[in-house]
Design goal:
alpha+beta; 8-stranded antiparallel beta sheet; 3-stranded antiparallel beta sheet; 14 helices; 17% strand
Length: 429
């Protein structure tokens, strides 16, 4: 018991940086709080059926974690930390529980950033073919569907990434409940991926008709149709998991005692966490953007307030704040594709704002921007944000689409992320 308590204390100390990061991500508006549910379930299901650890692999993953402290971002640094826990508790021998442990990572924001736009393209292309099969001559324009001049956009919530995470969670849970082997869990996961993509394509194709004004549906139908297709996919997965159930009696395993070598390694890694952390420096902020007016209105540059400083924290570029009458204009300039260019609504969520009424707006020049309402207590703003190239006419309404363009077309920069916050009445909706 003393050895177990000492091991727990040393690992808690060693993993303190990722624990702090994990807690901050759960509350910053960009993470996925449902990861906590996956974490609790993985621990609960593992404690009911303990198996022997693999100390050699636990030591290896702990060493990888120690090395990664100096150069890996927090998300990648957390993976060897979780692997250490899995190898130490025997969770690695249970495919479902190990999958739930990995799903506890707050990766939703990263999925939206890297896969949001590609998944929207896949959804738009698939829905385009499905609708054409029904006799409607729909054309795909990027992530938009056009029918006789009516444009329906496949917006970020329709990318299917939330359904993908929920499907992965359900698959891991079924694998744990039915004690599936790794081979059968992988097979079930591939089937789950196919069902998830199909369910999302059917949802997008079905919702095209009310969005295009061809049929009338009640307001709750948008979420209800998605839940219906997800439930059908989940029903099929449950039936398959039951057929894949591992019916042979699992062999009993002896618990290996924690060695002195592992305790020494854990103590050494815990000391490494007290070394000075690597800091990310921002680009110089004193360069003038030479902005004198905005939409024909005079502007006045202001100093960064605590709210605006949250936008600039760790940002590898220039940031300027202007007052345009009663409005606040935030300009972030960046010269290369970077994960550090966060959507403004993530920053606002982290400050406690509620985001509602998100939609795309097209101005007289045909340029689109993302608009939404951000409310907190008695504060309310109508927010408009977009990203534009400073050398071409290209513009983007979401970070994911901009990132993939900037990654493959680095010479089209620099780029400027523009956020305009207009105060509105708290009764305005």
């Amino acid at each position: 018991m003393k050895t177990r308590a000492l091991t727990t204390a040393l690992l808690l100390t060693a993993f303190l940086p990722v624990i702090h990061w994990y807690a901050s991500r759960l509350g910053d508006g960009s993470g996925e709080p449902l990861g906590l549910l996956a974490l609790i379930l993985s621990i609960t299901l593992t404690s009911k059926k303990r198996q022997s650890p693999n100390l050699r692999f636990a030591e290896l993953s702990l060493l990888l974690y120690a090395v990664g402290i100096f150069f890996l971002p927090p998300l990648l640094r957390t993976i060897p930390a979780l692997a250490t826990i899995a190898f130490l508790t025997g969770m690695h021998r249970q495919a479902g529980q190990f999958g739930l442990l990995l799903l506890s990572l707050p990766i939703q924001a990263s999925l939206d950033f890297f896969l949001g736009y590609p998944f929207r393209l896949i959804t738009a292309e698939g829905a385009h073919h499905l609708i054409n099969l029904l006799g409607c001559p729909v054309q795909r324009l990027g992530v938009q569907l056009s029918l006789h001049g009516t444009i329906v956009s496949v917006d970020p919530p329709c990318s299917g990434l939330q359904m993908l995470w929920a499907t992965a969670f359900l698959t891991a849970l079924l694998a744990a409940l039915f004690q599936l082997t790794y081979r059968r869990t992988i097979l079930l996961s591939l089937i789950a991926l196919a069902l998830c993509l199909l369910a999302n394509l059917l949802r997008a194709a079905t919702l095209f008709f009310p969005e295009a004004g061809l049929i009338q549906l009640p307001g709750f139908a948008h979420e209800g149709i998605g839940l219906l297709f997800f439930a059908l996919a989940g029903f099929i997965l449950t039936k398959l998991a039951r057929k894949f159930q591992h019916r042979t009696k699992p062999e009993s395993r002896q618990s290996n005692p924690i060695t002195r070598r592992f305790l020494t390694l854990a103590a050494g890694v815990s000391l490494v966490t007290f070394l000075p952390a690597r800091t990310i420096t921002s680009a110089p902020q004193n360069e003038d953007l030479s902005l004198t007016s905005y939409d024909g209105r005079p502007v006045e540059q202001v100093a960064l307030s605590p709210r605006e400083q949250s936008f600039a924290q760790g940002f590898p570029g220039r940031l300027k704040i202007y007052r345009v009458g009663q409005d606040t204009l935030i300009l972030r300039t960046i010269t290369k594709a970077s994960r550090m260019l966060h959507p403004s609504y993530h920053c606002l969520k982290a400050e406690g704002f509620t985001i509602r009424n998100s939609q795309l707006h097209q101005n007289e020049q045909g340029h689109q921007s993302l608009t939404y309402h951000a409310t907190r207590n008695h504060e309310a703003f109508h927010v408009t944000e977009r990203i534009r190239s400073l050398t071409t006419n290209r513009q983007w309404t979401e970070v994911s689409a901009w990132y993939w363009h900037a990654l493959f077309h680095p010479n089209s920069g620099p780029w400027e992320a523009e956020t305009l916050m207009t105060p509105i009445s708290t009764n305005h909706d």
